[in-house]
């Protein structure tokens, strides 16, 4: 019989708590834009995420449940459309915690970002609720605070800014993109709140500013090059940065301290790689967003990038000693 208590079974992590603090305005905004269902879905997914890690940790006797799993559950939920079925969210977080974290040995040993592993799994397994069923944004004074969930979007082509651009070539209003008054995933619509969260994480030294800057630089740089060459399938950089979850991915996902590059130079290479791959996926693949798969690809190369940087530094240092000897 498994017994549970917060003191004996929960690993307190101040860094993870700061991430949660930075997410509070975004969580409140998700309720305002889409209704209380967003919070209920998040609570439900978090319960299953904690339960999954708890069972695994207890079975293999590897320690306590980490606060990181709460962050994973919240981030995963915020990447989902408002109407995502509860059972899809449940399967997603269970898969993400087990195959994105537990199989590698638990906290601190995962190669991939568990929240993105969960998102990728439900994205390819349940395409309709993840790519077709979107919800309108509430425009009333109290917004979604007065309802369970907002109404469904009628025209799929114009459901999100990126889908609208792909189908019609039209760009959404920049003010709406900045404030979050657009349809999309629960936590990815408001550029303003994500930027403020990023500033807080940088100020509290919780997340790497190098990685954030590198992702955006890589994205803007390649977008400009392709636009100048004449590739119309790639939107202008400003629109691209403010839509499709790029900012959310750059601030919260790419900066995961476990699955991202850890050397100073490696963070720049890793981030630029993610930004560039996002442009390629958005412009030429079937996926409208791209940042999710780009970060997972970046996770794959992060250890190699760090080893390459260390080897280069070691070789350079050895040559310098040889010259001065």
Number of helices: 15
Helices and strands, in N-to-C order? HEHHEHHHHHHHHHHHH
Total domain count: 2
Catalogue the unreliable spans: none
How many strands appear in the DSSP assignment? Answer: 2
Largest sheet: number of strands, sense, barrel closure: 2 strands, parallel
Helix percentage range: 55-70%
Q: Averaged pLDDT, please?
A: 88
Radius of gyration: 20 Å
Cα-to-Cα separation, first versus last residue: 67 Å
Instruction: Please report which band the strand proportion falls in: under 5%, 5-15%, 15-25%, 25-35%, 35-45% or over 45%.
Output: under 5%
What would you call the quaternary organization?
Answer: single chain
Strand order across the biggest sheet? Answer: 1-2
Shape: globular
Helix/strand/pairing class, anyone?
mainly alpha
List the helices and strands and how they pair.
Elements lengths: L5 H4 E2 L2 H21 L2 H24 L4 E2 L1 H11 L7 H15 L13 H12 L1 H5 L29 H8 L5 H6 L11 H13 L5 H21 L7 H6 L3 H8 L10 H21 L6 H34 L1
Parallel strand pairs: 1-2
Helix pairs in contact: 2-4, 2-10, 3-4, 3-5, 4-5, 4-6, 5-6, 6-15, 10-13, 11-13, 11-14, 14-15
Summarize this structure briefly:
By secondary structure, the chain is mostly helical. Helix content is 64%, strand content 1%.
Which labels suit this protein?
2 domains, 64% helix, 325 residues, mainly alpha, RnfABCDGE type electron transport complex subunit D, translocase, two-stranded parallel sheet, FMN
What does this protein look like?
It contains 15 helices and two strands. The mean pLDDT is 88. It has a two-stranded parallel ribbon with strand order 1-2. It folds into two domains: 1-155, no CATH class; 207-325, no CATH class. Helices cover 64% and strands 1% of the residues. It has 325 residues and is mostly helical. Helix 3 runs parallel beside helix 5 and helix 5 crosses helix 6. The protein is globular. It has helices at 6-9, 14-34, 37-60, 68-78, 86-100, 114-125, 127-131, 161-168, 174-179, 191-203, 209-229, 237-242, 246-253, 264-284, 291-324, and strands spanning 10-11, 65-66.
